[in-house]
């Protein structure tokens, strides 16, 4: 996915676009390694096959295209008509012919790239709303796409892991997850301590008088915090409990 041709001189946004390009290649590589029979196998998400994950990622791209179109035209275009409509699209996409499902991902990716390319430097700051109603600049859709691709590639259950995800993505994921816990009043005294870094790094309630410290590698902590297992993660309270809800 080549970098867009019209961008503000914003190094952070440029970096996020490059990460999105890498994330697209990561997902595509794992998808292309699956045989047509493999597509019918289970994903890491309860109740979802790999087909559901692929359809979800494809329709996420189309949803982001609608937000980018909103920013470009100044005509409100919600990401999804409703949660029910989104779920219905995913279910229908999962039933597509195997070749059609692969094409759905490829075409949706191209459409999103083209939509980002059509933005001018000024419209990258145009406000849009997420499905939860949160107002963001359309430039934030680049991180939204990064998050979807890096995490859901692992959900394809091909053997890819959070250890394959760039450190900067893992850092931002863990920061946002623990911030979401705090905003909702979840997480209590949880403190997440990264053990595979030269400098000590901690996330969560750093001011707690009685912290429950969950420790592990950065990749392991993100795996645990996203609710995808706790391999290599330990806790000062014994075996780590299930984490609070992420999204």
UniProtKB/TrEMBL annotation:
Molecular function as annotated in GO: isomerase activity
Entry-linked SUPFAM superfamilies: DinB/YfiT-like putative metalloenzymes, SCP-like
Species, as recorded: Cryobacterium glucosi
Record NCBIfam families: maleylpyruvate isomerase family mycothiol-dependent enzyme
Source organism, top-level taxon: Bacteria
Taxonomic lineage from the root: Bacteria, Bacillati, Actinomycetota, Actinomycetes, Micrococcales
InterPro entries found in the cross-reference section: DinB/YfiT-like, Maleyloyr_isom, MDMPI_metal-binding, SCP2_sterol-bd_dom_sf
Keywords, alphabetical: Isomerase
Domain Mycothiol-dependent maleylpyruvate isomerase metal-binding: 21-157
Protein name: Maleylpyruvate isomerase family mycothiol-dependent enzyme
């Amino acid at each position: 996915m080549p970098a867009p041709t019209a961008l503000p001189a914003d190094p952070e946004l440029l970096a996020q676009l490059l990460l999105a390009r890498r994330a697209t290649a990561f997902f595509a590589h794992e998808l292309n390694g699956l045989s047509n029979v493999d597509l019918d196998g289970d994903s890491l998400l309860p109740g979802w096959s790999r087909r559901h994950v692929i359809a979800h990622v494809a329709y996420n791209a189309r949803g982001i295209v609608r937000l980018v179109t909103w920013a470009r035209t100044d005509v409100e275009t919600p990401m999804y008509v409703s949660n029910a409509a989104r779920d219905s699209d995913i279910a229908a996409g999962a039933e597509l012919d195997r070749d059609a499902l692969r094409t759905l991902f490829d075409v949706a990716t191209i459409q999103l790239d083209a939509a980002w390319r059509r933005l001018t430097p000024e419209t990258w700051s145009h406000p849009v709303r997420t499905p939860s109603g949160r107002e963001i600049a359309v430039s934030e859709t680049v991180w939204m796409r990064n998050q979807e691709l890096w995490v859901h590639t692992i959900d394809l259950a091909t053997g890819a892991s959070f250890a394959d995800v760039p450190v900067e993505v893992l850092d931002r994921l863990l920061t946002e997850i623990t911030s979401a816990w705090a905003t909702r009043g979840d997480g209590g005294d949880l403190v997440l301590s990264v053990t595979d870094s030269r400098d000590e790094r901690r996330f969560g309630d750093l001011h707690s008088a009685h912290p429950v410290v969950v420790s592990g590698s950065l990749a392991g902590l993100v795996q645990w915090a996203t609710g995808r297992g706790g391999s290599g993660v330990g806790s000062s309270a014994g075996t780590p409990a299930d984490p609070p809800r992420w999204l």
